[in-house]
């Protein structure tokens, strides 16, 4: 019985460790903070401004993922956001979900 519980615990730990949770650290890891901050405009809009602008949009997460991965132009002014091809799909989704919580 003790061995069975140990196996369940180990499997649970792997699931938690394998999931991507977005945070300022994940934004830093993916270089988002070179242009964005949580509360203030830097080069691009703050994460909170982004969250507010897209709050309630149909497929908000999917839309933000497409902007994170593909970049954009003219949405927030003249400075374009370049594509972030090195951001994994999992990181992009986690970042989009995290940004959406900042409303």
Can you describe what's shown?
- By secondary structure, the protein is mainly alpha-helical.
- It has one domain: Cytochrome c-like domain (Cytochrome Bc1 Complex, Chain D, domain 2), CATH 1.10.760.
- Helix content is 52%, strand content 0%.
- It contains five helices and no strands.
- The protein has helices at residues 2-18, 24-29, 47-54, 60-70, 89-100.
- Helix 4 packs across helix 5.
- It is globular.
- The relative contact order is 0.18.
Give the assembly state of these chains. Answer: single chain
In DSSP terms, counting alpha (H) and pi (I) runs of 4 or more, how many helices? 5
* Main pleated-sheet profile: none
**Gyration radius, rounded:** 17 Å
Q: What gross morphology would you assign? A: globular
Which range best describes the helical content: under 10%, 10-25%, 25-40%, 40-55%, 55-70% or over 70%? 40-55%
How many domains in all? 1
The CATH first-level class comes to: Mainly Alpha
Helix-strand layout with pairing:
Elements: H1 2-18, H2 24-29, H3 47-54, H4 60-70, H5 89-100
Provide a concise account of the structure shown.
With 103 residues, the protein is mostly helical. It has helices at 2-18, 24-29, 47-54, 60-70, 89-100. The chain is globular and about 30 Å long.
What descriptors fit this protein?
Cytochrome Bc1 Complex, Chain D, domain 2, 103 residues, mainly alpha, 5 helices
């Amino acid at each position: 019985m003790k061995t069975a519980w140990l196996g369940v615990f180990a499997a649970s730990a792997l699931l938690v460790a394998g999931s991507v949770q977005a945070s300022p650290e994940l934004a830093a890891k993916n270089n988002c903070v070179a242009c964005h901050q949580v509360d203030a405009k830097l080069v691009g809009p703050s994460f909170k401004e982004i969250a507010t602008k897209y709050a309630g949009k149909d497929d908000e997460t999917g839309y933000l993922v497409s902007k994170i991965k593909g970049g954009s132009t003219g949405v927030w002014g003249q400075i374009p956001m370049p594509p972030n091809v090195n951001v994994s799909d999992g990181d992009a989704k986690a970042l989009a979900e995290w940004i959406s919580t900042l409303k």
